Amino acid sequence: MKCVFEKGTLGDVTMLKNRNFVLWSAFAAIISMGVFWNAVGEELSKENSDNNQSPKKSQTDKDKKVDDKSKDEKPKKDATTESKSSSSARKFNPLSYDEERVIIHKGTERPFTGEYTDNKEPGTYVCRRCNAPLYHSKDKFESHCGWPSFDDEIKDAVKRVPDLDGERIEIICKNCGGHLGHVFHGEFLTKKNTRHCVNSLSMKFYAEGKTLPAVVK
Ligand SMILES: [Zn+2]
Fold first, then answer.
1. pTM of the entire structure?
2. Taking CA atoms, which of 25, 114, 182, 213 is between 20 and 30 Å from 62?
3. Of 85, 124, 91, residue with least CA distance to 216
């Protein structure tokens, strides 16, 4: 620097240039730091929003499920249906709007409104979507809960999965993954101490002696 000073005007110009250079360098460094921290900040906020998504989603799912009137809800892909990659290739029975709301979107029909709640005829209940036999009439009992109730299922017909509410056990058709209802234990309503609480809309009843439809596999 001293050397530059002694060169007089030329030195001053050089010094000025040097000073400008230093200032610009500092400025550039500050800008770079700003860009860097901005990038870090964006990454962090992205991470946070990712983390928040799941709980928010499950909360939404829960709300939708509780609300029986949520008829406008868009079809939500549930894990059980989605996991069956072959589902879309299979030709299931066509479903009405309400049946789809219950079977595909895990809705619940209003209590005491289902066509099979009080049905006492002997026969078999099959899945409304894929025709898989689910329950026998001999296992149906009067629970007064407002939905058809069974204390046993046909062997290997029903799959139990944790409900999105984190409390109940959801039951689905093992063949097609369609939603049936929930299963409860420990209510001491029957000797088997089990209550399959099933939506009428999830099933189709075939009276004894009638030929059961072919299962869509
Ligand atoms: Zn089914």
1. 0.62
2. 114
3. 91
- Tokens (6 digits) for 188: 């001491």
Cα of 40 vs centre of ligand 1, distance in Å, is 49
CA of 186 to the centre of ligand 1 (A): 27
pLDDT in single tens digits along all 217 residues of the chain: 443 444 444 444 444 455 554 445 554 454 445 444 444 344 433 433 333 333 333 344 444 343 443 334 344 444 444 444 455 689 999 999 999 999 999 999 999 999 999 999 999 999 999 999 999 999 999 999 999 999 999 999 999 999 999 999 999 999 999 999 999 999 999 999 999 999 999 999 999 999 999 999 9
CA 192 to chain centroid: 31
- Taking alpha carbons only, the member of 189, 50, 213, 216 closest to residue 130 is 216
**Identified catalytic residue from 127, 173, 176, 197:** 197
Q: What are phi and psi of 68, to 5 degrees?
A: -70, -25
Gap from CA of 139 to ligand 1 centroid (Å): 19
Q: 79-207: which CATH architecture?
A: Beta Complex (2.170)
Active-site residue, 176 included:
no
